Amino acid sequence: MNKTADFSFFQVYIDTKASNIIDDFKDVLTEDEIKKLDKNKSIRIRNNDSILTTDNWSELKDIFFSQRMETYNSSYTPNEKIKLELEALEKLPINKTDYKILKERYQKYLTNLTTQSLPKEIKKPDKIKKNRYIEIFKNDMGYNIFLDLHNIYKTKPKPQAYYSFLFYALDKDYLVCSGSDFIIFLSKLNIHIDKIDSRQSGTNKKRDLFNSIQDKYLKAQ
C-alpha cells in the first residue's frame, strides 16, 4: 500500500454528471438500477486528468488544497487544518522523484499560508445557473455573464449604450441570436431599446467589468 500512497494522495476530484460515466456502472449495477440513476446528478470522480504532476501543479494546486481541507472536521480553524495537513504530508511515503518535488512544493504552499490570509482563489466559485434561453445563448457561461451584468445595467440610465455593449461583448462566443432577436428578448425583461448601437462594439470602460465577471465563471468551470 505504501508504494501507491503518494499516487493516491496527489490527486483531485473532478465534478461530472452521472450520464458521462454511465458505462462505468454496467458491471456493478443492473439495468433497472442504472435506469433509476439521476443522470443529471453531479458526482465527483478521479481519472487520468485528476492526477497531479509537476507540470499541472500550478494549475491544480488551489483546487487540491481546497479539497484536502474538506477532509477535515469543519469545526477546525484553517490554521489547525494546515498544521494537520503538514503532519500528514510529513508521514507520507514518497517513492518517485516527481512526488518528492510535489511534496516539497505542497509543504512550501502550506507554510506560506500560515503566514498570510487564505488566497481568494480557494473560495468556492459562484454556482453556474442552467441556460434557460437556448435560442439566445450558446451556453451556460453566456447566460450567467448576461444575468450578472443585467442585474447591474437594468437600473442604469441610457440602457441602449449598456445593452449594445453587452450584445457585442457576448456576440462572438456566447450568443446565437441576431441584434433584433436580442432586442426582443430584452423587451421581455422590461428593457426597451430602439437598436444595437454600433458605437459600443469596440473596447471601452465597460470591458473591465465584463472581463472580471467572465473570469469568475471561467474559474467556476
Shape descriptor reads: elongated
Classify the secondary structure makeup into a structural class.
Answer: mainly alpha
Mean pLDDT: 81
Order of helices and strands: HEHEHHHHHHH
Gap between N and C termini = 34 Å
Total E-strand runs? 2
Share of helix, binned:
40-55%
- Using only C-alpha atoms, the radius of gyration works out to 23 Å
Low-confidence residue ranges: 117-125
Supply the number of helical segments.
9
Sheet with most strands: 2 strands, antiparallel
Task: Work out the oligomeric state of the chains in this entry.
Answer: single chain
Strand content: under 5%
* Biggest sheet, spatial arrangement of strands: 1-2
Give a structural overview.
The chain is mainly alpha-helical. The chain contains nine helices and two strands, in the order H-E-H-E-H-H-H-H-H-H-H. Helix 4 packs antiparallel against helix 5.
